[in-house]
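ok new one. same drill as before - structure tokens go in, u give me an amino acid for every spot. 154 of them this time. try not to just spam alanines like last time pls lmao
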């Protein structure tokens, strides 16, 4: 169940931050064309790099076989390209006139588009089968690997 928490953290909180950044940058840098271009390209790209390297480290640490890990990596790449396109689109439409007139159909479209992204990411972050629910303790170093990829001393 910890992997679902990880999924909600990286794919629930981070997109909200990315989608909120344009309002902050418009306030800070002014509402001009360069601000829109900056927020629609740079912010999703930085989030993509962060997501990619964190997910790759989770894939390397999981208990799945090599073929599954390879498929998880390919799935991650496709899902992240999809999400960058979606995030850039969401940032760009914030500049369109009539944004305050979003109807239920538009909200349903974006929720569905986001859920299409979450499904493959649930597979990507799946840690594999675990015969025991206890973290692995490394006998030689006196540390144990926690579910979020870090180490804790014992």
């Amino acid at each position: 169940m910890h992997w679902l928490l990880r999924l909600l953290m990286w794919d629930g909180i981070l997109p909200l931050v990315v989608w909120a950044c344009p309002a902050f940058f418009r306030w800070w840098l002014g509402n001009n064309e360069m601000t829109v271009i900056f927020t629609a390209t740079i912010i999703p790209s930085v989030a993509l790099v962060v997501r990619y390297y964190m997910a790759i480290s989770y894939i390397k640490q999981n208990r799945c076989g090599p073929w599954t890990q390879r498929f998880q990596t390919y799935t991650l790449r496709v899902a992240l390209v999809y999400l960058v396109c979606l995030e850039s689109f969401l940032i760009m439409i914030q500049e369109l006139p009539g944004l305050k007139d979003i109807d239920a159909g538009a909200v349903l479209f974006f929720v569905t588009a986001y859920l299409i992204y979450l499904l493959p990411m649930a597979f990507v972050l799946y840690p594999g089968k675990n015969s025991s629910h206890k973290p692995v303790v490394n006998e030689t170093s006196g540390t144990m690997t926690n579910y979020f990829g870090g180490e804790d001393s014992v």
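The mean pLDDT is 78. and btw The two ends are 23 Å apart (CA to CA).
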